[in-house]
Design brief:
Shape: globular
Strand order of the largest sheet: 6-5-7-8-9-10-11-12
Largest sheet: 8 strands, mixed
CATH architecture of one domain: 4-Layer Sandwich
Number of strands: 14
Distance between the termini: 17 Å
Helix content: 10-25%
CATH topology of one domain: Metallo-beta-lactamase, Chain A
Bound molecules: zinc ion
Structural class: alpha/beta
Strand content: 25-35%
Length: about 270
């Protein structure tokens, strides 16, 4: 995306990303938060660039119900929950609240993405990196889904969503004709419907639900995401093999995985970082 980098959520995966980023003067980190559940923010305090004096971290995310997003993050990453006070981090930090129906636009040469609220229409310029924001209620307390567009290509990040009977039509409309979707698939169907420990209503999906969305939205490639902590690598590879019997271009997300949208509809799985 021509030097423009987006970081989606701040779970533990953001920690090794931070380790790979050596301090570079003025380096920009743009972080988009889908929601404020612990597993989507807990890596932020351990993200090394937040302590680089010359780094600039811009965090876009939802307003919490009772205070501002900045106050919320300050409370989460200050004593007694965290050893270092938020204000002692050295990087320049800006926190921007965003809303469903809004858009982030990042034009070539612009220093930062600009947030457009829902009543403003984004320009249709293929060189402008555009992130459409959908507010979904298919997760407890709601979640933002992101559709990232650039150069005539589109990628949808739909984690922490639970499928609906007949497919999530809001998401299917939002994701239509994207090149790639990263979709929640925390549970197998057997776990999801297990009478003894039913996961219905927990806000997560199965591979079948992810594939149903991809098919209905005409998306050629699916990445199954938000793995259950109880599932080890062997279990996930079995889930992947089973999913591929129904939709061949399905992969379970892996650490350091690199997928390149080479051209509209052409997704390549490249060697890991
Ligand atoms: Zn969640
Ligand atoms: Zn989650």
């Amino acid at each position: 995306m021509a030097g423009r980098r987006l970081i989606l959520d701040a779970g533990l995966g953001i920690i090794p990303l931070g380790r790979q980023c050596r301090p570079v003067r003025g380096e920009l980190f743009v972080l988009l938060l889908t929601h404020l559940h612990r597993d989507h923010i807990e890596g932020l305090g351990f993200f090394a660039p937040i302590r680089y004096p010359d780094a600039h971290l811009v965090i876009y995310g939802p307003p919490p119900p009772e205070n501002s997003l900045e106050e919320f993050l300050r409370a989460q990453f200050s004593p007694p929950l965290f050893p270092l006070p938020w204000d002692e981090n050295s990087a320049q930090r800006d926190v921007v609240e965003i809303h469903g129906g809004g858009t982030l636009i990042w034009a070539p040469g612009a220093p930062l993405p600009e947030y457009l609220p829902p009543d403003r229409t984004p320009p249709s310029d293929p060189d402008t990196l555009t992130v459409h924001i959908m507010h979904s209620w298919a997760h407890p307390q709601g979640v933002y889904l992101f559709r990232v567009e650039w150069g005539g290509r589109a990628f949808v990040y739909a984690t922490d969503v639970e499928g609906y009977v007949g497919g999530d039509q809001h998401l299917i409309h939002f994701a239509q004709n994207a090149d790639l979707i990263v979709h929640d698939a925390q549970y197998t169907m057997a776990e999801y419907t297990d009478a003894a420990r039913c996961r219905q209503g927990w806000g997560h999906s199965t591979p079948e639900m992810a594939i149903e969305v991809a098919r209905a939205a005409n998306i050629p490639c699916v990445v199954l995401f938000h793995h259950d902590p109880q599932h080890d690598d062997e279990f996930l590879l079995d889930m992947e093999a089973e999913a591929q019997r129904h939709f061949p271009a399905t992969f379970v997300a892996r650490e350091q995985m690199v997928l390149a949208i080479k051209a509209p509809g052409i997704v390549e799985h490249l060697p890991s970082l």
